[in-house]
Structure formats: structure tokens, C-alpha cells
Design a protein that fits this description.
Elements: E1 5-12, H1 16-27, E2 32-39, H2 42-51, E3 56-60, H3 68-79, E4 86-90, H4 95-103, E5 108-111, H5 117-149, E6 153-159, E7 165-167, H6 169-175, H7 186-191, H8 195-211, E8 215-222, E9 228-239, E10 245-254, H9 256-284, H10 288-303, E11 307-314, E12 319-327, E13 338-339, H11 344-347, H12 349-353, E14 358-360, H13 370-378, E15 383-391, E16 394-403, H14 412-500, H15 506-538, E17 546-549, H16 550-567, E18 571-577, E19 587-590, H17 594-599, E20 610-613, H18 615-632, E21 638-646, E22 649-656, H19 678-684, H20 690-700, E23 704-708, E24 716-723, H21 739-744, E25 751-755, H22 759-771, E26 775-779, H23 782-792, E27 796-800, H24 808-816, E28 828-832, H25 837-846, E29 850-853, H26 858-872
Parallel strand pairs: 1-2, 1-3, 3-4, 4-5, 18-21, 25-26, 25-27, 27-28, 28-29
Antiparallel strand pairs: 6-7, 6-10, 8-9, 9-10, 11-12, 11-16, 12-13, 14-15, 15-16, 17-20, 18-19, 21-22, 22-24, 23-24
Helix pairs in contact: 5-9, 5-14, 9-10, 9-14, 10-14, 14-15, 15-20, 16-18, 18-20, 23-24
Length: 873
């Protein structure tokens, strides 16, 4: 284990803060004990140099009295040569200054303000180590020159014709062999040479003999103590009168010391080059893995050892793993191996933190603890050299050289190399960590910027969407106001004309009533659409599922739009694929009435097109598509409905020759409140809800709907698919009444109590019921109805829900509290403008048997009354 050396450093800088920084950097170095002297002026620095034995100088380039170059020149004048390692400090970063400094005798230079503690310590210690090593080399060269001047030479003469061999007395001394050992023959001479050199020596001498020339060669041989000596031999071949080789005479000189000095010099320059290469790589590369691999590979080659590893600690238990490895052939590879040394934390942590080096020349020499010996033996180690790697004053890991083949004496030059490289590795690690930190910060900053940008974009998008939603809402409210008011105009107008103008003939009166009826239905449909959308958005829209034929659904919807289609002279067709029922693959045209359906061979409740669904909602789907087709198809156009079965799906295809759909609007055709443009709204009317309702209802039935169009004025095709039922034709509900049954029944003899606070509604319902023969009694409030009811013995109660003081729910609860003989079980119909699903359920829950939404359609209302009376009977 190496001892801590003392080094005296002179810092010459006129800045107190900089001197304090350099002092702090140096005193944290655990490898050396520093004595630090300081000077503000160059002249003060020269004076301190004269008084003290300095190891190195940190010299600022810009000083108040002289600059750094002038200081170096003055130093050389006094010593005739640069015998002091100097590191120049410059804040200019000017390469020309660095070149001048190096020419003037500086060992190195560093840039002020950009130098870390590790770089400063490395620069000054490397300069001192190089200076000391050069001094040692100069001394060795002086000794070598003296040795060569006083070298002892031995000689031998070999008679080539008689093969006799004569040695001088000094040859035994040069070759370090016993004087009794006789080199009697040439062969005995070859035997003292080590086997690796023997062949080349023999060939060189024999070549000289054959060519009658001189030779000079170097070879190694074993001394008596087993060590190897280097010998230089010079020889000459002499010939006889016939020019035939006669004898060879050679001199022998021991050049072992010279060879050792040469190897030291080579090792020194190799070390310098290796440290420089790795330092350059550290400066130029941020690839830590590549730097570590280069380090272990180059160190193993330089030391000619069996294994070099870099070991990284894992805190807090000081275990770790082999991070990088270079291993010779035939030895155990331990890359990535997790290593735990139970003795390490106790015996070595603090020493390594202080920068101590562990030098083990033989693990069995008794200097190591048994647990440490056992650990090294696992990895075939006989000797090792361990240098700590410090990262910003923290013990990061170890740089370790293993000799596995045999014990080994580690040289100071080798220790110095590992120390310098460990410092470089520490700088590389710190640099890598800083780079990772900067990269992380940049990544986080970039992410923050991206998040901010995304937030701004999202905010802009939401703002645009909000503005778009507000615009759509404003447009919708304007459309709603227009669509609700438009039907009111002819309704109110013709109503006033009918009330005031008694000169109208019957034809004109009928026309006026038809106009009023048509516009009232339009307004009613608008309200129904709004209620449906409300139910959809709240998830409250329910289906009353039953088995029903799509033929019936489509036929009913066609009958509804037939008059409006005929008014525009639109060719309206319904085509059914009869191959599902008949032995034909042709499409059969269906007229629309039930009798005509039978004539075509297609049943009204065709079992081939049975689906499970809500008949009212299915008819609403088809009616919406058909009414759109009629609305957007010009006069004389064509509107076709096809019904097909494709595998397990029923396809309803509605095709028109109308205005078509642009490719830009096609993806939005089923959106709520969306219409192609405001011109469409003004020209064709509507709220833009119909197709949105269609899509929702189709999906509720487990189906799909899509729209296709080639573009403007190219017509449109809507394809709806429903899952078919694989069941036989079902019977009609026994409680349902056919149209014939409805038409054949009347209400004669029925006593009906009608309760409504609105006079017009009360008189209208009374008129409808009386037209079918019913005896109607009216009440304008629930309280009045309770007064009338006990003596009326009514067969049916028709009551409005929303009334002042006592509503329809309260009225029915009072009646249901009566005894059956008092009329407590009377059939009751709720008649109300509250048309939601919840309103219907609430009405049924309090005891109403049926729920009819206003406005009332007379035929449907009579049908409800007949069904209810039929059930009660």
C-alpha cells in the first residue's frame, strides 16, 4: 500500500477568490498532502521559488507586474533550463497563448472558469509526475553512459576449420557463468542462450560466416540466480589465403541496464500516450461505456496482466458488480458478476475514500484477511492492484488489475498510470452524469414546452369547439324559432279566416282545414323530435320490443309519405327480395295496401323479414328516411325502398335522386343539430335532428346505418341493417285490434268523463268522443270532477295531468281510494302535454291504464279508447 506523499505547490494569481478555489480543489485530493504557497505578483512568485523547494507552480497568465510568459523566461534565465513543472492558468482561451506558454517551458495549460477540481488536480500532478520521471530518466541515461564507458568486454575465438573454441577470462564475468564452465564448443555456447533467442543468434552467425561479413546482435541468457541478462555481441569472420572462413572472433558486453532503461523510457512514453488518448476521449466523447471499455483494454495491454475490470459500488451496503472487463484468453470472465465482500466496508471503504491504493503482490503473503483471500481466489487472482475511482469526492468504484498466472511486483510507473486513468474515469463519469442531468432537464423542459403547446392547442381547440357549439346552438335556436313559428302562421291565419269569414264555400273550408291539420302535424313532429333527443341525451329512451315484419313497417311508413310524394310527382317504389320467401331471386314491387301485398304473394307480416324491435320506433326510422328523401328530391324525381336479406341481416335501402350530400358533410350527416348549410335550412326546413335520431334508434335495435352519395345533385342512399329473427311467424297480439275492428266499433252507450282545465282541449276531446256516439260529461277541474263523479256512473275517465290546485295524479288517487261499486276501478286515460317516458311511467304507476300525449290524433285516440274498453269488458 503506497504512502501519501507531500507536495509543495506555488499558486501565483492576483485574484484572491481564484487562489482560494485552487487551494480548496487541491486540499480535497486524498492522494497527496499539499503545502500551498501563494503570491499575487510574478516577482513575489520568483522570490518564493528561490526560497523554497517547490514541486510545481500554478501560474496565472495575466499578472499586474509581468505576464506568465515573462515569468517563465525569467525562470529559465536563472536556471539555464526549465527545472520546474508549471501549469499556466489563462482566462483568454487563446490557442496562441497556450502555444507560447508551452514553448516557454510550461508543462500544461488550463482555462480559468471552465476547470473542475479533478481536471486541476490531474493537470498539476501529471506535470509533476512527468517532470520527476524525466529527471529519473536523465539520471538513468547518465548512469548508462558511464556504464558503457567503463563496460567490461569478454571475447571468444572460434576456429572454424578445427572447431576449437577459446574464451577470454572476462567472458565468464560478462556472462555470469562459473569459471569452471567451459564453452568448449559452439553448441555449448548456444545452450546458454534462452530458447526464444537461440535460433536467431545461430542464423545470424552462420549467415555472417557464409557471407564472410561482420555481425552485431543482442540476445538474452539466464544468469546463475535465474534472472535474465541482455548481451550485445559483435563479431567478425577472418579468412585464409584461399579466402575460406578460418576463424570468428566476437566480443560480448552486458547491456542489461541499458535495456531496462530503454524499456522504462518506452513505458513512460507509452503511459504518456495512453493517458493522453483516454483524456482526449473523455474530452471528446460522452459515451461512458466506450470510454470504460477503452480504458480496461489499454491498461491490460500496457501492464501485460491477465484481467482488468472496473467495479461499481451499490450503496448503501457497498456491494456491486463488474461493469466493464478486459480478460486474457483462458482466464475466468466475470463481467456483470455481483460481488459481495463482507470485509470490505470495515477494512477498505474509508481508505479508498481518502484515495489510497491497494497493492497486493501475493494474496498468500499473510497481509490480507482470510475472507479477502477467499474472494480473490474465486477469481483465480494471485496479485492485484486496486485504485479508487472518485466522482465529485464520492467513492464511485474501483479500477482493478489482476495477475492470475503468478504473484507480481507492481512498479511505481504502473501505479501512477492507474491513478491517472482512475482520475480520467472519474471525470468521464461526472461528465456523463452531468450530461444525463442536462439531457433530463432538456427533456423535461421540452416536455414542459410540448405540454404547454399542447395545452395552448387544446385550449384553442376547446375555445373553437365552444365557439362552434355556441354558433350551432344559436343557429339551432334560430332554426327552432323559425320551424315552430312557420306552422303557426297558416294555423292561426286560416283559423281566423274560418271564424270570421262565413262566405267560404265547402271546398275552400276543407282546404283550410287540411292546411291547419298538415301544419299542426308538422309542429307536433318537431316537438316529438325534440323530446326524442332529450330522451337520447339522458339515456331514457326505451324500446317496447316485439316480433314484427319489416314489410309491414316499411309499408306503413310509405303510406304516411305517399301524399307528399304524389304532390311533388315523385315516383315512389317499394321492392322486396322475394327469394327469402318464394322460389325466385327477383325483386318484387310492392304497392302499399295490405290487399295489394297479398296479391304480390308477400305476406304483410312476412316471416322472412321478422325482427325484434319497437314497431313505433322502427316506423319512425323508415319514416324519417323517407320524409328526408321526399323533402330533398325535386319534382319528378324517384324514391325507392329496397328490402333484402343478406345472411343474417335485413337491409333496408332508401335511394333518392335528390340534391345529394357533399363529401365534406357526409361524415357529419348523422350528427345532432347539423345541416349542410343555412340555405338548406331556409329552403327545406327542419331542425337537423331526424338522421341523428335514426342512427340512435337503429343502434338501439342492434343495427347499423350508413349514408352514401356521389356528391351534390347526385342523390343519396341510406342503408340500414337489422339482425333478423330465426323464428316462425308469430301470432298477432290477442288484445290488438285491426283497422276493421276499430272501424266496426263505436262508442254508443259509453258514459265518459273528460277533465281538462283548458276549454279548447276539453271541447275538442268531447267532440271526438261524441262523434263516435259516446255520452260525454266535462269538468274544468279535478275538484269539479270529484263532485260529479259519484252520481255519474261513468264507464271511462279521460283526465289531463297538469291542472291547477289538484292535478290529474291527485284526482286519480282520490278515485282509486273509492270502493269498486263507487267507481274506484274505472278505466282511466291520462291525457297530457307531458309526453316523456318518465311521464308515461308515472301515469301508469298511479293507476292510469293508458297515456296519450297531446296533440291528440283522433283516430289513434279512439283506437286507445276501444282497446281499453275491450280489455275492461
Amino acid at each position: 500500500m503506497s504512502k501519501i506523499k507531500r507536495r509543495t505547490i506555488l499558486i501565483i494569481d492576483d485574484c484572491l477568490e481564484d487562489r482560494e478555489t485552487y487551494r480548496r480543489y487541491l486540499t480535497r485530493d486524498r492522494n497527496y498532502d499539499y503545502v500551498i504557497l501563494e503570491a499575487e505578483l510574478g516577482s513575489e512568485g520568483l522570490e518564493l521559488w528561490r526560497k523554497h523547494q517547490l514541486d510545481g507552480v500554478l501560474l496565472d497568465y495575466l499578472l499586474p507586474d509581468i505576464n506568465g510568459i515573462e515569468f517563465l523566461e525569467e525562470l529559465q534565465k536563472e536556471t539555464q533550463l526549465n527545472n520546474l513543472p508549471v501549469v499556466m492558468l489563462t482566462g483568454q482561451g487563446d490557442e496562441s497563448v497556450a502555444v507560447k506558454a508551452m514553448k516557454a517551458g510550461a508543462s500544461d495549460y488550463i482555462i480559468k472558469g471552465k476547470t473542475t477540481a479533478e481536471e486541476l488536480r490531474l493537470a498539476i500532478n501529471s506535470a509533476i509526475d512527468k517532470f520527476n520521471l524525466r529527471a529519473q530518466l536523465r539520471k538513468s541515461q547518465d548512469r548508462l553512459e558511464l556504464a558503457l564507458d567503463t563496460a567490461v568486454m569478454g571475447t571468444w575465438e572460434w576456429n572454424l576449420q578445427t572447431n576449437s573454441f577459446i574464451c577470454s577470462q572476462l567472458l565468464a564475468q560478462v556472462l555470469d557463468i562459473s569459471e569452471n564452465t567451459c564453452l568448449a564448443t559452439y553448441q555449448s555456447f548456444l545452450e546458454i542462450i534462452i530458447p526464444e533467442d537461440r535460433d536467431i543468434v545461430d542464423r545470424s552467425i552462420r549467415y555472417a560466416i557464409s557471407h564472410k561479413s561482420e555481425y552485431q546482435l543482442e540476445f538474452r541468457h539466464f544468469r546463475r540466480d535465474g534472472s535474465i541478462a541482455w548481451i550485445e555481441s559483435r563479431g567478425k569472420i577472418y579468412c585464409d589465403r584461399r579466402n575460406e572462413p578460418l576463424r570468428a572472433i566476437a566480443t560480448f558486453t552486458d547491456i542489461t541496464e541499458a535495456k531496462n532503461q530503454e524499456q522504462e523510457i518506452q513505458k513512460f512514453f507509452l503511459q504518456e500516450r495512453l493517458v493522453y488518448q483516454i483524456a482526449q476521449q473523455v474530452r471528446q466523447s460522452l459515451n461512458l461505456k466506450e470510454i470504460l471499455e477503452t480504458t480496461v483494454n489499454q491498461v491490460r495491454l500496457f501492464l501485460n496482466c491477465d484481467r482488468v475490470v472496473i467495479f461499481q459500488f451499490t450503496l448503501p451496503d457497498w456491494n456491486g458488480r463488474v461493469l466493464t472487463e478486459s480478460v486474457g484468453s483462458g482466464w475466468l470472465a466475470i463481467l456483470g458478476k455481483e460481488i459481495y465482500d463482507p470485509c470490505f466496508a470495515t477494512n477498505w471503504v474509508e481508505k479508498y475514500k481518502r484515495g489510497r491504493v491497494q497493492k497486493v503482490e501475493n494474496i498468500h503473503d499473510g497481509k490480507l484477511t482470510p475472507c479477502h483471500v477467499d474472494l480473490l481466489a474465486q477469481f483465480q487472482v494471485q496479485a492485484n492492484l486496486v485504485v479508487p475511482i472518485l466522482e465529485a469526492e464520492n467513492l464511485w468504484g474501483l479500477l482493478i488489475a489482476h495477475q492470475c498466472s503468478k504473484p507480481r511486483q507492481w512498479q511505481d510507473l504502473e501505479i501512477s498510470l492507474l491513478r491517472q486513468l482512475a482520475t480520467q474515469v472519474g471525470i468521464a463519469i461526472q461528465q456523463s452524469l452531468l450530461f444525463d442531468q442536462v439531457k433530463t432537464e432538456l427533456s423535461e423542459r421540452k416536455k414542459t414546452q410540448e405540454d404547454l403547446q399542447n395545452s395552448l392547442q387544446r385550449e384553442q381547440f376547446l375555445r373553437e369547439e365552444a365557439e362552434k357549439a355556441n354558433r350551432i346552438k344559436d343557429e339551432f335556436l334560430a332554426i327552432l324559432s323559425h320551424e315552430l313559428r312557420s306552422p303557426l302562421n297558416p294555423i292561426l291565419g286560416w283559423s281566423k279566416i274560418l271564424l270570421k269569414d262565413r262566405k267560404l264555400d265547402d271546398k275552400r273550408k276543407k282546404q283550410a282545414l287540411q292546411i291547419i291539420e298538415r301544419n299542426a302535424k308538422i309542429q307536433s313532429q318537431l316537438i316529438e323530435d325534440l323530446l326524442d333527443i332529450s330522451r337520447i341525451l339522458r339515456g331514457k329512451l326505451k324500446l317496447e320490443a316485439e316480433e314484427i315484419s319489416l314489410v309491414r313497417i316499411i309499408s306503413s311508413a310509405l303510406e304516411t309519405v305517399r301524399l307528399s310524394a304524389e304532390a311533388k310527382d315523385i315516383d315512389l317504389r317499394f321492392l322486396v327480395d322475394t327469394s327469402q320467401q318464394l322460389n325466385s331471386s327477383n325483386l318484387t314491387e310492392v304497392i302499399n295496401t295490405e290487399s295489394e301485398l297479398w296479391e304480390t304473394g308477400i305476406e304483410y307480416n312476412n316471416p322472412a323479414y321478422l325482427v325484434l324491435g319497437d314497431s313505433a320506433r322502427l316506423q319512425q326510422i323508415v319514416w324519417n328516411l323517407l320524409s328526408n328523401g321526399v323533402k330533398f328530391t325535386p319534382k319528378g324525381g324517384k324514391l325507392t325502398v329496397q328490402l333484402k336479406a343478406v345472411e343474417s341481416q335485413a337491409q333496408v335501402i332508401v335511394t333518392d335522386t335528390g340534391k345529394g350530400i357533399t363529401q365534406e358533410f357526409l361524415p357529419h350527416v348523422f350528427d345532432y343539430f347539423r345541416q349542410a348549410d343555412s340555405a338548406t335550412t331556409r329552403r327545406f326546413g327542419g331542425l337537423g335532428l331526424g338522421l341523428a335520431i335514426v342512427r340512435y334508434l337503429v343502434e338501439m335495435h342492434g343495427g347499423t346505418v350508413k349514408a352514401d352519395s356521389l356528391g351534390k345533385d347526385q342523390g343519396a342512399t341510406f342503408t340500414v341493417c337489422f339482425p333478423l329473427l330465426e323464428v316462425a311467424k308469430t301470432k298477432e297480439n290477442d288484445n290488438s285490434l285491426s283497422t276493421d275492428q276499430i272501424e266496426s266499433h263505436n262508442l254508443e252507450g259509453l258514459r265518459i268523463l273528460v277533465v281538462d282545465d283548458e276549454l279548447d282541449s276539453r271541447e275538442f276531446i268531447s267532440f271526438v268522443l261524441e262523434q263516435d256516439g259516446a255520452e260525454v260529461t266535462t269538468a274544468k277541474s279535478a275538484l269539479e270532477a270529484l263532485q260529479i263523479f259519484p252520481n255519474l256512473q261513468a264507464d271511462l275517465l279521460v283526465s289531463d295531468i297538469g291542472m291547477p290546485e289538484m292535478d290529474g295524479y291527485m284526482l286519480l288517487r282520490e278515485i282509486r281510494s273509492m270502493q269498486p261499486e263507487e267507481g274506484g276501478n274505472i278505466p282511466a286515460i291520462a291525457l297530457t302535454a307531458y309526453a316523456g317516458e318518465l311521464d308515461r311511467k308515472q301515469a301508469l304507476s298511479v293507476g292510469f291504464h293508458s297515456h296519450v300525449a297531446k296533440p291528440v290524433e283522433p283516430d289513434n285516440f279512439i283506437s286507445v279508447v276501444l282497446k281499453l274498453i275491450n280489455k275492461s269488458v
